[in-house]
Amino acid sequence: MKHRTRHLLSFCALSALIAAAPLNAGAVTMEELLERIERLEQQNRELKQEVQDLQRSGADLIKLPETSAEAARNDETGFVSSNADYGFRILDAGEDVNTKPIVQLKARQQGDLKGSVTLSGQITAIANVQTSNRDDKFGYLMRNPTSANQIGGDVSEALIHSANLAVTAQLNDWITGYFEMLYSPEQNFGAGTITALTRNALDGRRAYILLGNLEEAPVFAAVGKLDTPFGLNDSVSPFTNSTNWHAFAGLAYGAQLGYVENGLMIRAMAIQGGAQFRAHNMPVNDTNVPSRLNNFAIDANYTYGFGERDSAMFGASYTAGSAYCQNYPVFHFNPCTDPNPAWDIYSRIRWGGLELLGEYASTTKEWPGSAVPDPTNPLSVYAAQKTSAYTVGARYGFGELLESGRQKSYVSAEFSNFVAGDDGAPWERQNQLVLGYSRYVAENINLFGEYIHVDGFAPLNFVSGGNFPDGSTWSDRDAETEVLLFGAQGAF
Hints:
By secondary structure, this protein is α+β, with helices and mostly antiparallel strands. The chain folds into two domains: 2-64; 120-166 and 219-491, Porin. It has helices spanning 2-20, 30-57, 68-74, 84-91, 100-109, 243-248; strands at residues 80-81, 117-132, 154-170, 175-183, 203-212, 219-227, 251-261, 264-271, 274-275, 281-282, 295-305, 311-319, 342-351, 354-366, 386-401, 407-419, 429-442, 445-457, 476-491. The protein has a 16-stranded antiparallel barrel with strand order 2-3-4-5-6-7-8-11-12-13-14-15-16-17-18-19. Helix 1 packs antiparallel against helix 2 (30-57).
């Protein structure tokens, strides 16, 4: 606008000079008038050149103001954005279980997060039928196995298993903020049935500040509520988590440090003491009060690539305080007298469309609560045992290869085992077999079906008894559960 005004003034001045010339011929000669016109033309040429230079440089001085809608269309990044593939990966509960911060750092490195804030969401709907040879005892662990929700020998359901909403904020080139909400009435620890308000509450599942920039350095740090670096805990099944996940996957307050480069990943985390949200319990003055950072976990793995999509990964983990330290009777979040460390080894091999997975975890000491200390009780004949779990699984992908790296369809088989007590004890073990099929109708939508068979019923609460007057236990090594399940998972 400034330059247009100058053009207009020049034109007006020229018109005034020409109009006034005959009347003031004595005062202004024709030669002087021509010199003035020549100077004005030179100024016009310079102004035109300046305008062209400004246009080429994209200066905002010559742009008209945009409406908010035009600004949103023309802004390639924007303040708020979404990425369906990132949303699916960051909120998927079966893969990259405890490496979500690395998923985020790699997404930033690859430019997948366009906005300052990335909104992500996930929802999983399921329908299933279940049968058990023991009334009210269903060992399928994708819902809390309580008689408050599963009555008789046959049950069925059609519902929302879980839904998540997450915010990933790129605060600057090095700092990422993350917050995730979870709605999961089937696995919520609230009292009552799945229709009770106490079980339909939202849970702040994860929240942390992440420091790292893989473009600049292979190290990162995170502080907050996040998954602990212990074990793999992934599954090849489309929906059902492995028994290793249920037994040893940790979620806790703490501070994590990590290194990731050239296939090597090393992570360590200082974990808040007391009974944490999942799989960690370290006594603080013989209480469960989380007033010290007196627990830790460390993990290291190496991935060797031998083809465009082929790789072999091997890893090991250790934690100073697992969840299996409580005395009889066992109840969630009760304090421990002494910590019980645990270790884990795992491997994953990918060769073309085939993926193989194996994992074994165990405590280093016997779990005190896995035995009944009352000599007058017949159940006391069973000695305390180390707690362990293992998983073996295979998955084969076929069909179209999607941009995310997933294939269109998968078939899978996985067996996992949890050992909680002595041989022959009612709480000795719980085994799980899952046969699955997945079909990705889009990068972010998975339709799936599973057949699940479970041997044993060994819930963590009162696993060896103590909740009935006669000291008996509700665990049952001979209970069997059959499940046929269908579902859909979508994310943005």
